[in-house]
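thread: overnight batch results

M.L. [08:02]
morning all. the overnight job finished for the chain we discussed friday. pasting input first so we're all looking at the same thing
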Amino acid sequence: MIKAQQINHYYGKEQVLYDINLEIQKGEFIALVGTSGSGKSTLLSILSTLLKPTSGTLTFDNLPYQKIKNINTFRKEYVGFVFQFHYLIEYLSVKDNITLATENQENKYLDELLKYLKIEELSNKLPNQISGGERQRAAIARALINKPKVIFADEPTGNLDSQNSQNVFALLQEVANQGTTVIVATHDTELAKMTDRICEITDGKL
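M.L. [08:03]
and the structure it wrote out:
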């Protein structure tokens, strides 16, 4: 599904990724694990097309990255993002935050998604009226609303307590079980054990 070959990346003169080779299959739940500065977030950004690698090749379902005609359309249809900070808009309801990226504001999938994530009773509340764990569930719903093929999550539990962190990983596990590929960058090796495969990055090397 996603194939990265000989990926190298520099920030200025500093090399942060070295000859990364990684192949990810449909429906896999993968953890990119490493300490701060190891290169895991950079690799996640490259795999998700948010960052262009200095060198190497990247393909999605046999489509080379260089041949993607409209990257914004590709991202909207192919990928969903979950970050450490939920980035919900404070003056919009949970429902409006989730549907903001959709063309159809009355998305029929929304009700199903809210129920699936156990936040259907929160749909009309504002972000500051719900808990941190609930806000992150809303962020996951926003990532899923366009039914992407891949979810990229960068330290999605960084601001959550241990129980909510486990809940979020369990939820991502369920998403993968439904056929969506999930790639998560985390420094938490215990949570990473909940994934199908752990890819450890040390000093920019996989």
